[in-house]
Amino acid sequence: MGGEKISIDVLTTMPNKFKSYEVETKSYEEKGNVKIWRIDVPPHQTGFTDRMWTYKSYYFGVWDIIKKNKTKYDIVYASTSRLFTGYLGAKISKKMDSKFYLDVRDIFVDTIKDVISNPIIRNAALPVFKFVETYTLKSVDHLNIVSGGFEEYFKKYSPKSMSIITNGIDDEFLNYSFEKKESNSNGKKIITYAGNMGEGQGLDKIIPQIASKTQDKYIFRLIGGGGTKDRLVEQVEAMGLSNVEFIDPVNREKLLEYYRETDFLFLHLNDYPAFEKVLPSKIFEYAATGKPIIAGVPGYSKQFLQDYVDNVILFDQCDTDQLFEKLNKYEYRTSNRNEFVNKFKRKTVADRMSKAILGM
Fold first, then answer.
1. CB 292, CB 332: distance < 8 Å
2. Is the distance from CB of 55 to CB of 81 less than 8 angstroms?
3. pLDDT reported for residue 110
4. CA distances (Å), origin 167, targets 105, 147, 159, 249, 311
5. Distance CA 147, CA 181 (A)
6. What angle do CA 265, 268, 274 make, to 5 degrees?
7. pLDDT at 111
8. Which distant-in-sequence residues (6+ apart) come within 8 Å of 331 by Cβ?
9. Do the two domains 8-169+344-358 and 171-343 of this chain adopt the same fold?
10. Superfamily (CATH H level) for 8-169+344-358
11. Of 14, 82, 216, 311, which is least surrounded by CB within 10 A?
12. Mean pLDDT of 336-347
């Protein structure tokens, strides 16, 4: 197939991750042999009901476009963290008798067991999710997983072929100077977290606690939105903490500026068993900055950082005392991580995946 003329349809959504962040973009674009449709869906936080309404709009929007264009696909590619986009890809590939390449970014059924605290909702939802997972995984011609920690879990579905291709580092991070030039933080070091503030990150179990113990040394800058942000804000306000800043989601250009201004970059996962297997994409962009990383992560993520990324302060999730002790012992420095960047830059990762797709 690689030698033939290829046309690619991309069916995605309008940017919608946070209600507090909106960007203008076109609903349809053509770039050479690539056509891009962006389906308008409701904005959401990280609530389960929010996500289901969003997915419903996307699901039917995709089918509407397919029916209107009467396109027959040879290969269907889906990238999914919560299985439902993968399920949609499986349905399309079945209908068109197409090859199906699935890129899996999380083990949704595993995570749901920990994240849904209400046992009635959890017990009602799990059989549905298990059906979706089984149908989707049994439909694949090639399965890619982004974390080696997922391998044992997905082997039980006996995929025809499987690869481990991780997340990559976007070009913007390769051509940007992250050297900090000045500081208006009154001598305090800035620790920045950027991303989702949901149950999976568990920031409410670590940020107020460590900020309280380090008010004279560190400013904690939290960028993003999510389902537990309000809870986190309430805790910070109740404790009267003046060294925690909340910033709404920003565009990539502004995010790079915040990364340049910071001294440390912070990563944390909640203390749920499912997170033993994951590999957060945030690791890759954090590492590209050369800044020291503070990471409360378990299992595969911890091992990956130990194997590939230097200058990382590792601590057990939600363990404030351990983090406090390690911060006090740490001697500040930045790092040259060129070897890591070259290995995991987006082009290298994308080339590997493209060859696998074209070889189907």
1. yes
2. no
3. 83
4. 9, 9, 21, 21, 20
5. 36
6. 150
7. 80
8. none
9. yes
10. Glycogen Phosphorylase B; (3.40.50.2000)
11. 216
12. 95
> Pairing relation of β-strands 162-164 and 142-145?
parallel
Distance CA 39, CA 57 (A): 8
Query: What are the tens digits of pLDDT across the range 102-161?
Result: 999 999 888 877 777 778 888 888 899 999 999 999 999 999 999 999 999 999 999 999
pTM value is 0.89
Rounded distance, CA 63 to CA 227, Å? 29
User: Domain residues of the chain, as ranges?
Assistant: 8-169+344-358, 171-343
Q: Domain 171-343, what architecture? A: 3-Layer(aba) Sandwich (3.40)
CA atoms within 13 Å, Cβ hemisphere of 132: 18
Q: Summarize the confidence of residues 38-52 as an average pLDDT.
A: 73
Render pLDDT for 254-312 as a digit per residue (tens, 0 to 9): 999 999 999 999 999 999 998 999 999 999 999 999 999 999 999 999 999 999 999 99
Which candidate, 334, 347, 292, places its Cα nearest to that of 314? 292
